[in-house]
């Protein structure tokens, strides 16, 4: 009956329809929940915006500025709230040569007014909007909504009113903050890391609040400028010199403009730029440099500039496509960074540096790899050579104090409890003959080095039992113990190794495969069923009592016997 074909009993169309409806419901529900969680405040802003448009509201200029700054911050963070009310407020409103009135949510917002109305009124009635950023506040919807409304003034009135105070490192990967640092970097201030820098910070914040954001930009394009000797504005962030007739730049002409981040020099008549034109930090902090559409010369004079580009972090738009150079007046342009500068390089010096660098990298990488992989191997070899250096030789083990030294993962509470509460009881307390065990957590003297404890335990025990789990098989302690147990085979011709597979481990180990073939009885596995446990314990007692040499297979025994006869 069980082989009867029941497919004919199922309505394939109904099953397919139910499957499609169920999958659609799960996908739609999951998508709606995700969108609602991520874009809640975005949707809220769009909803209010469309509602205002529906009622016929239009953009209007802000009323007269009642406040200098509207400060938006995480009011749910007691520490931030106290810092704003007790420190920021005092420094800007009460101290300094000119008071700067602030608009604060916890002090100036009328109770009972909707959040979006309070935010809109505060931003519209203030000259600037200061975002006191922390990691927690940067993730809130209130921050995003306030940022939308502050940007609305830029759209409605062409006024950039945004200031950012980084109280904590936040939004490190934000494209908005990266762009803002390039265009108007002074509008972003960071809380100093040292108390000594705080006076400078407060003075800088007052200056940023007083001046308009627009004064941090300078556009001198299309002015037919032929010479630029120096840039003397230390607070300038962006300088546009594009579409002029500049043929030469003086050495260090940006030395007095350490704050400059963006420089446009495209569409000029520059033929050569020396390395000394753009100095390195701290005199030069350029982030973006526009150079396309200039008649650069393809010569060794450009090598210094190429080296400067490689050493700096400056971004040059179109460097690999539009920044061309010419070998002669009528020649075809070629990409400047692809010009063959080999003739300008000292081949012998370059080869020597290359060899030294490659050797250093290879040696360092090899040493790091060997140290990571073979740490315990090297530790064993080091102790072995140290013993040889001091004249120690192999010696027979003292009289066996224990029948078995049990090594296991003492950092695993379950394994440790199993060994102490089950294995110990079965071998020491039960059975017709007690088998004394050596256990790390019970018998090792405290304060003794690991390798000394391991050596003494293995030498003073007839057998060494490895209680294997997947985690323990990956540790260095397991490998070191295995080396020391094999040392007895080399020194005394005694195989003392037993393996108890508490979990499947080292399935692809060549050592375990070979051991199963030569002395399979020395590897026992924890049974999968409780009914087999009595047989397991009896088998384990037998394996512990007899010598490993008697358990080797006939193949190995014949080989070993033949070797002895030949000797």
Description:
The C terminus is likely disordered. The longest helix is centred in the first third of the chain and has 27 residues. The chain contains 18 helices and 19 strands. The strands form five sheets. The chain has a five-stranded parallel sheet, sandwiched between helices. Strands 16-15-17-18-19 form a five-stranded parallel sheet, with helices on both faces. By secondary structure, the protein is of the alpha/beta class. The chain is extended, with a radius of gyration of 39 Å. One of its GO terms (cellular component) is plasma membrane. One of its GO terms (molecular function) is pattern recognition receptor activity.
Secondary-structure blueprint of this entry?
Elements: H1 12-38, H2 40-54, E1 67-72, H3 78-94, E2 102-104, H4 105-108, H5 115-124, E3 126-133, H6 141-157, E4 162-166, H7 175-184, E5 188-190, H8 198-210, E6 217-219, E7 227-228, E8 238-240, E9 248-249, E10 262-264, E11 288-290, E12 296-297, H9 303-311, E13 324-326, E14 334-335, H10 347-373, H11 375-389, E15 402-407, H12 413-429, E16 437-439, H13 440-443, H14 450-459, E17 461-468, H15 476-492, E18 497-501, H16 510-519, E19 523-525, H17 533-545, H18 554-566
Parallel strand pairs: 1-2, 1-3, 3-4, 4-5, 6-8, 7-9, 8-10, 10-11, 12-13, 15-16, 15-17, 17-18, 18-19
Antiparallel strand pairs: 13-14
Helix pairs in contact: 2-6, 5-6, 11-15, 14-15
